[in-house]
Amino acid sequence: MILPIIGYGDPVLRKVCEEVTQDYPKLKETIANMYDTMYNAYGVGLAAPQVGMSIRIFIIDCEPFSDSEDLTQEEQELLKNFRKTFINAKILKEEGEEWGFNEGCLSIPDVREDVFRKEKITIEYYDEDFNKHTDVYDGLIARVIQHEYDHIEGILFTDKISSLKKRLISKKLQNIMEGKTRPDYKMKFIAKKGR
């Protein structure tokens, strides 16, 4: 089922999310709905708060990045096949050089900015069957994970840009909060609540 994506300004996007237990009601259905929603909006990642749930789940499918000509064949294959669910994730380590990449967010449509993040991460998480993993990722996969992980910590990519850039995009952010933005996917805006 395709869920509405929560727009910038909604308090749920600013909450540190709660851990999920193995007996969480309809866990598999929740995850399936998140994938449906992400694919419908042409996203590469989606976190539970973006569909109104303050729980520590995010999903990733890096396949859309796999056709970049800047990548080696090996990198393209890795991205093409990287589809994963992260439950109760905890980034244990971020290391390496910081590098910039133009990021966007389904909750902040029509806004893209360069964000600098460390190139390599070590992350501990559970998959959808509640098997525990500790993995190391780098490059674009690490970046997408860091972006989605920030969501479950109540952080948005716009928090990581300069105050000058924030001023330059402030009108766009205001338009999102007022529901004046029209992405080609279903959204729920804070200004439209309670009407």
From TrEMBL:
Q: Write down the top EC class of this protein.
A: hydrolase
Cofactor binding mode and count: Binds 1 Fe(2+) ion.
Instruction: Tell me its cofactors.
Output: Fe(2+)
Offer an example of a GO molecular function term for this protein.
metal ion binding
Q: Establish whether keyword Coiled coil is in the entry.
A: no
Q: Which Pfam families match?
A: Pep_deformylase
Instruction: Report the catalytic activity.
Output: N-terminal N-formyl-L-methionyl-[peptide] + H2O = N-terminal L-methionyl-[peptide] + formate
Signal peptide from the UniProt entry: none
Sorted keywords for this record are:
Hydrolase, Iron, Metal-binding, Protein biosynthesis
One GO-annotated biological process of the protein? translation
Annotated Fe cation binding lies at: C105, H147, H151
What family classification does the UniProt entry report for this protein? Belongs to the polypeptide deformylase family.
Q: What HAMAP family does its record include? A: Pep_deformylase
Q: What does this protein do?
A: Removes the formyl group from the N-terminal Met of newly synthesized proteins. Requires at least a dipeptide for an efficient rate of reaction. N-terminal L-methionine is a prerequisite for activity but the enzyme has broad specificity at other positions.
Name of protein: Peptide deformylase
* Source organism of this protein record: Flavobacterium supellecticarium
